Amino acid sequence: MLGFLKKPVVVTAEINMNLVALTVMGLISRLWGLSYPRAVVFDEVYYGQFVSLYMKRIFFVDDSGPPFGHMLLALGGYLGGFDGNFLWNRIGAEYSMNVPVWALRLLPALAGALCVPLAYQILVELQFSHCAALGAALLILLENSLITQSRFMLLESILIFFILLAVLSYLKFYNLQRHSSFSGSWWFWLLLTGVSCSCAVGVKYMGLFTYMLLLVISGLHFWHMIGDQNLSNVSLMCHFLARGLALIVIPVAMYLSFFYVHLTLLYRSGPHDQIMTSAFQASLEGGLARITQGQPLEVAYGSQITLRNVLGKPVQCWLHSHTNTYPIRYENGRGSSHQQQVTCYPFKDVNNWWIVKDPGMQQLVVSNPPRPVRHGHVVQLVHGITTRYLNTHDVAAPLSPHSQEVSCYIDYNISMPAQNLWRVEIVNRESDTDVWKTILSEVRFVHVNTSAVLKASGFMLSGASLPEWGYRQLEVVGEKLSKGYHQSMVWNVEEHRYGKSQEQKEREVELHSPTQMDISKNLSFMAKFTELQWKILTLKNEDTEHKYSSSALDWITMDTNIAYWLHPTSGAQIHLLGNVVTWASANVAALAYTCLSLWYLIRRRRKIYDVPEDAWQLWVSAGGICLGGWAVNYLPFFLMEKTLFLYHYLPALTFQILLIPIVLQHLGDHLRSSLLLKSMFSALVVAWFSSVYFVHCTFSPVTYGEPSLSVTELKDLRWKDSWNILIRKQ
Question: Which domains, and CATH codes, for the chain?
Answer without folding.
Answer: 23-261+548-717 (no CATH), 294-514 (2.80.10.50)
